[in-house]
Amino acid sequence: MACDSVKTPKATVPGNEPERLRDKTAGKPVLRFLTCGSVDDGKSTLIARLLLDSQLVMEDHLQALELESKHAGKGAQDVDLALLMDGLQAEREQGITIDVAYRYFATKNRKFIVADTPGHEQYTRNMATGASQCDLAVVLVDARKGILVQTRRHSHIIDLLGIKHVVLAINKMDLVDYAEDVFAKILSDFERFAAHLNFESLTAMPLVAAKGDNITTRSGNMPWFNGEPLLSFLEKVDIATASDTHGFRFPVQWVNRPNLDFRGYCGSVSEGSVSVGDEIVVLPSARTTRVNSIVTYDGALERAGRGAAITLVLEDELDISRGDIIAGGKDRPSVADQVCAQLIWMGEEPLIPGRRYVINCANQTTGASVTKIKHRINVNTQDHSAAKRLHQNDIGVVNLAFDRPLAFEPYARSRTMGSFILIDRMSNATIAAGMIQFGLRRADNIHWQAIEIDKQARSALKNQKPLCLWFTGLSGSGKSTIANLLEKKLHAQGLHTYIMDGDNVRHGLNRDLGFTEADRVENIRRVAEVSKMMVDAGLIVLVSFISPFVSERQMARDLFDDDEFFEVFVDTPLEICEQRDVKGLYAKARAGKLRNFTGIDSPYESPEDPEFHLKAGTVSAEALVDEIVLALERKILSR
Predict the structure, then answer these.
(1) Which of 213, 259, 517, 583 holds its CA 20 to 30 A away from the CA of 21?
(2) Is omega for the bond preceding 206 within 30 degrees of 0, making it cis?
């Protein structure tokens, strides 16, 4: 097959093709596709074969590949093509793909960007990353093994990510004697599984990637297959997109203000197009204006379409910052602070409703939490089952609440405006990828009621500064004793206080909660919200809870102004807490009669930088209280 003479490019990220490739393929249609499936199904080998048979591998690169294959224990005639793709040393040593490897090549008819994604379950998150920008998926299946769990999981993920066109590549047919009945059975199994998915086209092909059967030319070993080779199919497949019919969408990435005479908003057009003079709306503020000019590195434009990197200059000076969405004035995306979404959980720790995360959606960033797991999806059967948490690689449908309204569109309409990631607040690791289905209507019925008497007025009446003292430590550490003594001293000074004690709250507000990790998260969430209202009422609130998790204590802190929240770590060694054991809880936990007890079979995450670090194991409660009062009088409570 005649192909452009393009050398093997280095792996880069999509959209950053080597300059020589852009020069040779300018104006050609682009197909972005990925290979996926279970580990060792031959994904890397397939892409390497496409490059090799299309004469896109340099001779010296091929010689090095042959030498490396020999070092890996291959025979003289058995070149390990997967080594062409597996660039990481760890991958070569293990024989698996870990990261997403991108390759670029072109034929006379089309330009290709292909993502080689990992098949191992541990790296499902990498696979989802690779699939997020693709138009077609090649799902590989080892003819000897048939449809596996990871095959189903990857197929479900590409369906969630909106990929409508699938090639079922049944590989290693030589190891089953090129048997047509094996091919037919695997195809039937996959069609039965995929009946509930939303693929618009499914094309099955029998392959031997290692030997080139049905890759670029028809294979004489399988005369019963009447279809065309894989590369010919990829050249011709029609990947229709409705993106150009969408309204204008422009997530702001940067505000360009080089001097007082220029203010521009930089980013890339994600959907639709924009022209000078068009009416636009800025979300979520809903302010409107018109486009004054469109600026690029190469000069001004009258019109910019999807994918263009531009700077917009507007007729009016509006308060616009990174994360705002500029959209067409007559075709606006939705704005809401609660949505229903499908979620692929990637974190090593499970998803727990109520725990606080950071969401990033189309450059918009804010706090978020899962308010409800509606169901978990079984990747084998597509059945929905109830779930209290999602574990790594689980797929589920959840309700999400945001700290502020975000502009969005359903993922089925816009990948850019409908996709998001969740980020762990403590580690900054990406722990989930999501696709918004719809906004929750109940959010439209809830509004902030304006109240004329504010926190400052209430605290001025009490002649004190409202604040929250958050006591944390193991059971038996002395939290409640110290908090109680402190309240007595503050009360004696005429200050208005209230204690929220862990045991007392569980008799009323939180009586429905147990001691699982999920219940502990919800326990602290409720207490933090109530404490915030008490501070808003002008009170000094003393919160005495074990609160074992750093993330929940941070969630509580984030509810308050910077000078209102003080973490008090009552640091008492576990052995001393056990010696006290006033309630007999440690004895029960050691005997296995009390599950999920902090310090025994449930962890306690110590504060790293509390405002007060009390060494309660060696200093009396009275002395520690005096220490707190002195600091408060000096820094906060002077009137």
Answers:
(1) 213
(2) no
Where residue 76 falls among pLDDT bands split at 50, 70, 90? Answer: very low
Nearest-CA neighbor of 129 among 436, 438, 432?
Answer: 432
Q: Quote the CA–CA distance of 356 and 342 in Å, as a whole number.
A: 18
Enumerate the domain spans of the chain. 19-236, 243-328, 334-441, 455-635
Contact call for residues 305 and 257 (beta carbons, < 8 A): no
Average pLDDT, the chain: 83
> pLDDT digits over 173-187, tens only?
999 999 999 999 999
Residue 333's contacts (CB-CB under 8 Å, 6 or more residues apart) are 247, 249, 283, 325, 327, 407, 408, 409, 414, 417
pLDDT in tens, 567-589: 999 999 999 998 888 788 898 98
The CB-based long-range contact list for 189-192 (8 Å cut-off, 24+ gap) reads: 189/146, 189/147, 190/139, 190/141, 190/147, 190/151, 190/155
Q: 334-441: CATH homologous superfamily?
A: Translation factors (2.40.30.10)
Cβ neighbourhood burial of 292 (10 Å; 0-12, 13-18, 19+): middle
Q: What are phi and psi of 175, to 5 degrees?
A: -85, -5
The answer regarding whether domain 19-236 maps to CATH 3.40.50.300 reads yes
Residue 126 gets which letter from DSSP? H
What are the distances in angstroms from CA 508 to CA 358, 497, 520, 543, 544? 31, 20, 15, 16, 16
Closest C-alpha to 353, from 427, 422, 447, 441: 422
Q: Quote the tokens at residue 185.
A: 């059975």
Please say whether the beta carbons of 430 and 129 come within 8 A.
no
pTM of this prediction?
Answer: 0.70
Verify whether residue 547 is a known catalytic residue. yes
Q: Is a pLDDT exceeding 80 seen at residue 121? A: no
Least trusted range by pLDDT, from 313-327, 365-379, 445-459: 445-459
DSSP tag of 173: G
Under DSSP, the state recorded for 260 is T
How many angstroms separate the Cα of 266 from the Cα of each of 14, 331, 406, 416, 472?
20, 21, 19, 16, 45
**pLDDT tens digit string along 13-40?**
334 444 444 444 455 778 889 888 887 7
